């Protein structure tokens, strides 16, 4: 299949042949299998299997039953031999006469990982970067019939003789895989939330290109908006490779939404060059984040002619918006860090995005659509693409453009010191950065670039802890090389060297400036009440572990492993469980509920663990939202999973099911919200209004006992201005102390026209320290709603542990005597209450006697 629609005359001038489709695949462990003969035409065809390009070796072996699905049970362990082997893909193809006689290139959009490429038994090039294409000049090397062979290893062979001595290491297995030398997803070598599963294959399309005069290597579209936001500009950069010494002329034409054309003409010279063109767009419609406006996108059509013949026509969608990071001095010290879109401060609500599958090629558009749907369902407007994974697919960014999800883009460096003092490595990563900035520059959802994840923080720690002199092998790369690349390739876009990062020579994780990763809570310390006092300017990581959905649990734990702490449980558990002498995630459940986690059933583990995680994430979000814009984000770790886990940081699991913590996060991120805090001897109630208009309604707040008595009530009409958080009421905390903090909650609700808009409450002790009454819950149907009531306070009412169906609410509270209505389709079976948190007291007594490690 040709990629360009050419006439016969044009075909002789330029063209492309798709080489994707059916190839042959063979492997070797170094002894068995013919590594030295893979590239030869004379081969034993019986030893080769059919394979797909784009493709991945594990997937081919799964198809043939040679290995099992790695996400389930213990299969990730039994498939590790694949990453230790060497693999070869081969294909024969016919080349057109124009390609044989003219200039020609082989283009592999994605090789994973170290590739040695052979054409007609001749080695024509190498490539070692997952994140950028491999492009090889094969002019004069083609025949009418050709044999193409690509020999690959997953990276372990490529890095085997490299040293990691003197570099920052964050795991004991680093000396084995030496991931810092490998430009492929770092998380594939294992992370706390992922198993090691080193991919290998030709994971993107391949093609042959040819040209008589010139070929287009890349097209970049940039948009800009004047200060008045009434005049837009489109700048187009065409990267052209001239392949002949003959005089030639190139014309670049730009059309915006099919409107009038703007053109520029350039002489073509042999070799690489950049051709520029521009078009004005008067009064463009502005692109806004979700919840703040619409997301209009403009079609930018770019056509390139050489000597009057069209050699390339491409369409990209772009948007117009002004972006700024307000880092003005803060009156309390340090600096603000406020994202401003079109001159408006926007509070960033969201989480960190990690690869959507441990087999990266399986993350297709449908999967990304499901993930973006879940993010918007949880009231997100922001995702941070974390630096230990991948520069995401075009599908991801296109969907974020369409749906108004802002993207923070890390460059792919994480939790390590990288060897950029080695010249070949530096050239490799510079080319990777240039390619990806050019690829992403037109997306309006992309709001900022960041050099790495936590490397500067670790450099500081490394310096402080080192007893001898230390190297800083990659510091200049983040502070000198990358900012220059961004400035040249995507001018005007914000860049910072690391995350977390604080300017003015402050500690990288200083709370008073820049962005923060508030991990003082979440690992060994599980007391998430400490979130209530954090004053971070732009919290960008921080989280609490909890279980995934029940189906994800079952996939992790096939029979006979379906019990807490089975061997399969340990393989699918978060590695934080192993960071301390005794399990911190287990202790989290004990400290908050008083229950012995190893005496719980799998279902109970999902409920009680999910109840704790949801409360922790709600505390994180509530604290920062009520401080807006002293704090300008609530971005937690993390959003999604790459495989099913028993415990993870996520609110959406591998199967796109909503984990138990999903609903508390969704409520906390509502556009209009209410937060109750206790500080300086007062109970204070904050109204949060993210909408574009002043919110007016009724406030009901005060104190009620768990048993059902309202010991203090206040009611008033309140106003919360647009895009603000403000204290709308307060009262002395003495009344709460008098009523008993183990028996009483502070509460607040906002309503309009008799309909509840938002609810908030505050529990001061740990949950196990509360005097929980029994809760008798009544459920009745009322048209398209289910109505729940209880005379006593009911904590964390659970009606579903599967998370596969969208519910308007789950893991919700019932306030004494107050009905709680949730939408419920009339044809669906009425909801059933599965668990309620008031049972913590009863379960404490029962699980204390249960044998540890059994379900």
UniProtKB/TrEMBL annotation:
Q: Which residues form the Mannosidase Ig/CBM-like domain?
A: 683-760
Q: Which GO terms describe its cellular component?
A: extracellular region
Note the InterPro entries from the entry: Beta-gal/glucu_dom_sf, Beta-mannosidase-like_N2, Beta-mannosidase_GH2, Galactose-bd-like_sf, GH, Ig-like_fold, Ig-like_GH2, Mannosidase_ig
- Could you list this entry's UniProt keywords, alphabetically sorted: Glycosidase, Hydrolase
Biological or metabolic pathway of the protein? Glycan metabolism; N-glycan degradation
**Any one Gene Ontology BP term:** glycoprotein catabolic process
Q: Where is this region: Disordered?
A: 493-517
Q: What is its EC number?
A: 3.2.1.25
Q: Which domain of life is it from?
A: Bacteria
Domain Glycoside hydrolase family 2 immunoglobulin-like beta-sandwich: where? Answer: 214-321
GO molecular function per UniProt? beta-mannosidase activity
Residue ranges annotated for the Beta-mannosidase-like galactose-binding domain, each copy included: 40-204
Catalytic activity of the protein: Hydrolysis of terminal, non-reducing beta-D-mannose residues in beta-D-mannosides
Name the Gene3D superfamilies on file.
Galactose-binding domain-like, Glycosidases, Immunoglobulins
Q: Which family does it belong to?
A: Belongs to the glycosyl hydrolase 2 family. Beta-mannosidase B subfamily.
What name does the UniProt record give this protein? Beta-mannosidase B
| Organism whose genome encodes this protein | Cohnella rhizosphaerae
- Give the lineage: Bacteria, Bacillati, Bacillota, Bacilli, Bacillales
């Amino acid at each position: 299949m040709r990629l360009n629609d050419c006439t016969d005359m044009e075909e002789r001038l330029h063209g492309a042949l798709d080489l994707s489709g059916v190839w042959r695949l063979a492997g070797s462990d170094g002894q068995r299998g013919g590594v030295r003969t893979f590239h030869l035409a004379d081969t034993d065809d019986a030893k080769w299997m059919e394979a797909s390009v784009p493709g991945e070796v594990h997937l081919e072996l799964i198809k043939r039953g040679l290995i099992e699905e790695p996400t389930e049970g213990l299969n990730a362990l039994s498939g590790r031999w694949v990453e230790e082997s060497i693999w070869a893909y081969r294909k024969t193809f016919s080349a057109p006469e124009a390609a044989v006689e003219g200039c020609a290139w082989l283009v592999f959009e994605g090789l994973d990982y170290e590739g040695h490429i052979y054409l007609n038994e001749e080695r024509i090039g190498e490539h070692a970067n997952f994140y950028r294409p491999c492009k090889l000049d094969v002019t004069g090397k083609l025949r009418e019939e050709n044999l193409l062979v690509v020999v690959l290893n997953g990276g372990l062979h490529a890095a085997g003789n490299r040293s990691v001595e003197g570099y920052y290491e964050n795991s004991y297995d680093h000396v084995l895989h030496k991931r810092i030398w490998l430009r492929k997803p770092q998380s594939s070598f294992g992370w706390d939330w992922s198993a090691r599963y080193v991919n290998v294959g030709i994971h993107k399309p391949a093609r042959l290109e040819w040209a008589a005069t010139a070929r287009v290597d890349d097209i970049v579209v940039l948009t800009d908006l004047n200060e008045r936001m009434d005049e837009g500009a489109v700048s187009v950069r065409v990267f052209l490779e001239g392949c002949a010494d003959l005089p030639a002329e190139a014309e670049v034409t730009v059309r915006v939404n099919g409107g009038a054309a703007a053109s520029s003409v350039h002489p073509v010279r042999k070799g690489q060059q950049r051709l520029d063109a521009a078009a004005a767009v008067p009064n463009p419609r502005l692109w806004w984040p979700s919840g703040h406006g619409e997301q209009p996108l403009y079609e930018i059509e770019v056509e390139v002619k050489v000597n009057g013949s069209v050699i390339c026509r491409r369409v990209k969608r772009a948007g117009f918006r002004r972006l700024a990071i307000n880092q003005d001095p803060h009156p309390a010290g340090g600096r603000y860090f406020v994202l401003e879109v079109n001159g408006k401060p926007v509070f960033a609500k969201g989480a960190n995005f990690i690869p959507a599958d441990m087999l990266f090629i399986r993350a297709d558009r449908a999967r990304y659509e499901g993930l973006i749907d879940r993010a918007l369902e949880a009231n997100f407007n922001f995702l941070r693409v974390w630096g230990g994974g991948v520069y995401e697919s075009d599908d991801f960014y296109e969907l974020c453009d369409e749906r108004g999800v802002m993207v923070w883009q890390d460059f792919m460096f994480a939790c390590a010191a990288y060897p950029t003092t080695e010249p070949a490595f530096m050239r490799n990563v510079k080319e990777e950065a240039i390619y990806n900035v050019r690829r992403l520059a037109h997306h309006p959802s992309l709001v900022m670039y960041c050099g790495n994840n936590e490397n500067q923080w670790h450099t500081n720690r490394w310096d402080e802890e080192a007893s001898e002199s230390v190297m800083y092998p990659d510091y200049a790369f983040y502070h000198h090389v990358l900012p220059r690349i961004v400035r040249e390739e995507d001018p005007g876009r914000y860049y910072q060297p690391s995350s977390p990062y604080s300017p003015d020579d402050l500690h990288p994780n200083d709370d008073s400036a820049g962005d923060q990763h508030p991990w003082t809570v979440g690992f060994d310390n599980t007391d998430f009440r400490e979130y209530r006092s954090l004053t971070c300017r732009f919290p960008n990581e921080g989280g609490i572990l909890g279980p995934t959905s029940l189906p994800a649990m079952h996939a992790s734990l096939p029979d006979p492993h379906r019990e807490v702490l089975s061997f399969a449980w340990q393989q699918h558990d978060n590695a934080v469980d192993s960071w301390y002498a005794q399990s911190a995630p287990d202790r989290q459940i004990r400290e908050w509920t008083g229950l012995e986690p190893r005496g719980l059933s799998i279902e109970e583990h999902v409920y009680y663990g999910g109840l704790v995680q949801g409360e922790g994430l709600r505390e994180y979000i509530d604290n920062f939202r009520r401080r807006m814009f002293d704090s300008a984000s609530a971005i937690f770790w993390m959003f999604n999973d790459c495989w099913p886990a028993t415990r993870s940081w996520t609110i959406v699991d591998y199967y796109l099911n909503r984990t138990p913590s999903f609903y508390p996060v969704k409520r906390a991120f509502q556009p209009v919200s209410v937060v109750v805090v206790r500080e300086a001897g007062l109970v204070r109630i904050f109204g949060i209004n993210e909408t574009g208009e002043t919110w007016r309604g009724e406030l009901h707040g005060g104190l009620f006992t768990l048993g059902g008595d309202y010991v203090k009530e206040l009611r008033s009409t309140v106003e919360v201005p647009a895009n603000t958080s403000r204290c709308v009421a307060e009262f002395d905390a003495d009344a709460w102390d008098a009523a008993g903090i183990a028996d009483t909650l502070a509460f607040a609700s906002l309503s309009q026209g008799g309909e509840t808009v938002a609810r908030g409450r505050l529990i001061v002790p740990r949950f196990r320290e509360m005097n929980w009454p029994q809760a008798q819950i009544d459920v009745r149907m009322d048209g398209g709603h289910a109505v729940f009531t209880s005379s006593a306070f009911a904590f964390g009412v659970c009606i579903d542990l599967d998370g596969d169906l969208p519910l308007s609410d789950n893991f919700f509270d019932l306030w004494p005597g107050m009905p709680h209505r949730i939408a419920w389709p009339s044809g669906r079976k009425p909801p059933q209450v599965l668990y309620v948190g008031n049972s913590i007291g009863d379960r404490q007594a029962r699980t204390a006697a249960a044998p540890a490690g059994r379900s």
